[in-house]
Write a structure and sequence with these properties.
Distance between the termini: 78 Å
Shape: flat
Number of helices: 3
Mean pLDDT: 79
Largest sheet: none
Oligomer: single chain
Helix content: over 70%
Structural class: mainly alpha
Order of helices and strands: HHH
Radius of gyration: 25 Å
Number of strands: 0
């Protein structure tokens, strides 16, 4: 007897999604390198920008700081979304099992849903703190006039 196995769709979807994420990250890295060395057609392509050495270190720190906050914000929002989606799923499963199935399992799932919701709220508050810090930093940068020596 010949047994036909079904296609492992979960594995294929996981591999394709990872390849898509790697492609997006590669594209972002290429765009950052192009911005750092100038776009083709803007001066000589492939030549680094002419920035004084002292100003370059300050600008690198400023760029890293400017890039870190949106990354933190995105991580917090992503974690919040995962926790809240998990809370919704656990809530639905917990209500169903506490009504129809073993009550102890329904209560355990409802407890996990509450904990997941609390974790989502904590992540949301963290995202708000990061956003407020970005707003304050932007307001402080607008208050300070640019200095001619690049410091």
């Amino acid at each position: 007897m010949i047994v036909v196995q079904e296609m492992p769709w979960v594995i294929i979807v996981r591999i394709l999604s990872r390849l898509a994420v790697l492609g997006v990250l590669n594209r972002l890295a290429m765009q950052a390198r192009r911005r750092a060395y100038g776009y083709p057609g803007a001066g000589r392509p492939g030549t680094p920008p002419t920035v004084p050495t002292g100003a370059r270190a300050d600008s690198v720190k400023a760029l890293l700081s400017a890039a870190a906050d949106p990354a933190r914000l995105a991580a917090r929002i992503g974690a919040m979304a995962v926790f809240l989606a998990g809370a919704a799923t656990l809530l639905a499963a917990g209500v169903t099992l506490s009504t129809l199935g073993p009550r102890w399992l329904g209560i355990a799932l409802l407890t996990l849903a509450a904990l997941s919701f609390i974790a989502g709220v904590v992540e949301g508050r963290g995202a708000l703190r990061v956003r407020m810090r970005m707003h304050r930093r932007g307001a402080a940068d607008r208050l300070l006039p640019p200095q001619p020596d690049g410091k």
